[in-house]
Amino acid sequence: MKYFFIIFIISCYFFMGLRSSTMVNMEGPVAKFVKEQIPKEKVVIFSKSYCPYCKMAKEVFDKLSQKYYALELDQREDGEEIQDVLKEITGARSVPRVFINGNFVGGGSDVKALQEKGELVKLLQ
Ligand SMILES: N[C@@H](CCC(=O)N[C@@H](CS)C(=O)NCC(=O)O)C(=O)O
């Protein structure tokens, strides 16, 4: 039973790795959509409506009166695929994934840290 469990866990990791490395078509329509959204606004947030880290990032921009374009991935049928594409682009599929002037700047904690260090305002120029 113990060995079955270990093999099960190893198989899960194997298939998760396989999914991320082989199933993302960076030339496909979802990747094209993601690439088109990133330069659409000065601040673009790939978000989920219920996500506290996304709320945290949005609040940072709200306090700066900086408008942003948020895509709520939990409200889209292609949300999972968008996250797979974002993993290829940014190295992780967690939300939020925040872009400023077309550049990836991080997740919610990163945005907050940038603001606290006074670096966010510079990136927004
Ligand atoms: N340290 C990350 C944490 C982000 C995080 O844990 N996000 C959750 C949602 S609140 C997530 O992406 N969960 C996996 C998923 O929704 O696919 C950040 O500050 O952005």
From TrEMBL:
Is DNA damage tagged as a keyword? no
Q: Which GO terms describe its biological process?
A: cellular response to oxidative stress
Tell whether Protein transport is among the UniProt keywords: no
Q: Name one GO molecular function term.
A: glutathione disulfide oxidoreductase activity
UniProt signal peptide: 1-20
Q: Which Pfam families match?
A: Glutaredoxin (PF00462)
Q: Where is the Glutaredoxin domain?
A: 43-105
Q: Which residues form a coiled coil?
A: none
What are the transmembrane regions? Answer: none
Give the UniProt entry's GO cellular component terms. Answer: cytoplasm
Query: Sorted alphabetically, which keywords does the UniProt record give?
Result: Disulfide bond, Electron transport, Glutathionylation, Redox-active center, Signal, Transport
The UniProt entry, under InterPro entries, shows: GLR_AS (IPR011767), Glutaredoxin (IPR002109), Glutaredoxin_euk/vir (IPR011899), Glutaredoxin_subgr (IPR014025), Thioredoxin-like_sf (IPR036249)
Q: Write down the superkingdom of origin.
A: Eukaryota
Alphabetized PANTHER family for the sequence:
GLUTAREDOXIN 2
Describe the task this protein carries out: Glutathione-dependent oxidoreductase that facilitates the maintenance of mitochondrial redox homeostasis upon induction of apoptosis by oxidative stress. Involved in response to hydrogen peroxide and regulation of apoptosis caused by oxidative stress. Acts as a very efficient catalyst of monothiol reactions because of its high affinity for protein glutathione-mixed disulfides. Can receive electrons not only from glutathione (GSH), but also from thioredoxin reductase supporting both monothiol and dithiol reactions.
The record describes its quaternary structure and partners as: Monomer; active form. Homodimer; inactive form. The homodimer is probably linked by 1 2Fe-2S cluster.
Q: Which family does it belong to?
A: Belongs to the glutaredoxin family.
Entries under NCBIfam families matching the protein: GRX_euk
Q: What is this protein called?
A: Glutaredoxin-2, mitochondrial
